[in-house]
Amino acid sequence: MNHNRTRDAPDFLRGVVIAEYGDGLAGAAATATLAAMGADVTTVPVQDSLLRRRVPALNADRQPVSVLSAVLDADKTVSHESAPAPMVTVVDRCEGTGPLSDMPVDDYLDHVDRENGAVWVTVSPYGLTGPRRRWRGTELTIAAAGGLLSAVTDGRSGWPIKLAGNQALLSAGQVAALATCHGIDEHTRTGNPVHIDVSAQEAVVVTGPLLRVSNLLLNSAGETGARRYGAPAGYYRCRDGVVRISVMEDHQWAALVRAIDAPGWTDLFADGQARIARADELDTNLAAELAQWSMTDCERRLQQEGVPIAAMYSADDLADSPHFAARGALRDIAAGATSLRTVGLPFNVEKSASPTRQKPAGLQGLRITEAAHVLAAPLAAALLGAIGASVTKVEDPDRLDIYRRRGPYIDGVAGPDYSAYFAAMNHSKKSMAIPMSRDTERLARLVAESDVVLENFGQRRARRLGVDAATLLSNRPDMLAVSSSGFGYEGPWSAYRAYAYNLHTAGGLAYLTRGSDSRAADLDLPWADLISGIALATVIAAWAVGPNSCSGAAVDFSMLDLVASRFNEFLAAAHADIEGAGPEDASNHMCPFAPHGVFATATERQWVALAVWNDEQWRALCTTLDDPAGLTDERFASARSRTDNEPQLDRALRDTLAGANAVKLIAALQDAGVAAAQVMAPEDIVADRHLRTRGFFRPVTHPEWGMRRLVGVPWRIVGTPAFALGAPPLLDLR
């Protein structure tokens, strides 16, 4: 497909010079985000780093080149010498390698104290403080420790499995990009060197099991997951594919009934509670109804009626998506003689030609008006509020946020100030109740006093209220106006309704995340919303701290673009017909690691995630386990032979570890230099001594429910306490 529209790159960070060391995936992802927004990034590659051994790979000049590394380096200068003197230094100590990545923690901290003249950002598996600060971490073990593995299960075995690709480390990188903007702001404001400590484990908690962890912290009970608010909510097979439907409101159910010509059985499910209580029966009837439809017809017809639905698209489909083409989202990157098709930054930006006032003074006191509901945009505003912005959430009494209106509720007390999910997404901000359609003057006054407006109302309502990004920029050319939506405000799918679960399906996550039998895995968390919250906050922070924030801009942010971009190596490989385009890392297998998986132990409900990437670590693993006979097989003697015989290796390890004590085993393996971690459930995260020692769960005092703890900001400034959070605001309708 020709995609003749191109996406303008923002220059928010033009003039910011960054050096990247360690050649690890998280650091590379962080600097890729910053480079795409205008920063001048130099990366120093390391031969045979894990990043450059990732698959899929292409052959360039007779050497294998990781598609993912080529994508992440596209906007950087790649230098085999030291990088020029930077304003910002980014070091990856997760899967990174080299002197800075391999240095003992205390020596490393001393080195940063001596060398840092401006901003230094360290991404490490568990942070630079706490009991696990010396532990190793990889994509799999960080996903395990951050609770992401426990949220995804193999449909056949019920075992925990990883999301396709490298989502734990990419999330750590996205958080590090936001934290870098915060570091720039602190250095600019104080003139002092700033060392930012990013914990990959904490980044994964914030972009994974955040809602379930918040439930436990706030003592809230009730249904969680996709069916807590409505049904039907699940996958349905059509004649030639699969769709995901998420009906959360009665008007959406009525729209679905119209779309399928109101068969008689639908009369049994007119009430929302009846649909939830009899969800299995409803699913059986609906599946029979949709079985004869084509996948794309089903998506189109139901969306035309206003039903949140998405077809399950493959990497091939996404690389040739007409929606992405119309939005200018597709980007071709040259890798030697090969052109790699990718999805670029997840937003379109229109820049103001004539700013009318001076730039805001960074993040501290940045005046943000949040006209948003549910999750992604409120999370972005909460994080920015926690690091210094002044955030006002506009609440319309006529259309309250669904998180205000529904549980689960703190202590089981129903009411708009007791919603656990609202509390988790809306700390560190003020609230202003404005009936927006009836009091447009008050809304206009608030907007006039703002540096930034962030909205996710949907384009029809936003335009009617005059708060969409394009309208705001035309009236206020000096401000940053951000509109966030599932599919963006431009493109043929711009009017489509979406929840996170639909975006997982449309954006490649559902297709690519496969269990051991190649069936799509069961994923039950609003991942698209959570990663979008971090990305939105990064856009706003980059504009606020960069030298070009004196120029206003309108941002059209698409959550679908972001989800698809997280699988760019698969899109690129599929479009270029490179081997490895499909879900080759099905279950927990991932090149170049072997063994690489999750194993049950003698400890009830405690799985151990292991990742070994060289023969030295393999020998350390065997020694720690007292060289069991099952692991001395000649087929496991080398990294190549272990990869070739991975199913047999997994069976041997399962037998060996079945009688092990999980806690003792993990500690012994880490002492031996082998990456290992417990697959943490939300209950384990809340009780985790390491996270509590780091102050990850922050106290807030609310006038209704008193002192509780909320999930905090997943980075620190070295030498200072974790950031304080403000209590979620009361709903004041006076």
From TrEMBL:
Entry keyword annotation includes Ligase: no
Keywords assigned: Transferase
GO MF term set: CoA-transferase activity
InterPro entries associated with the record: CoA-transferase_III_domain, CoA-Trfase_fam_III, CoA-Trfase_III_dom3_sf, CoA-Trfase_III_dom_1_sf
Pfam families, alphabetized: CoA_transf_3
Record's protein name: CoA transferase
Species this protein is from: Mycobacterium rhizamassiliense
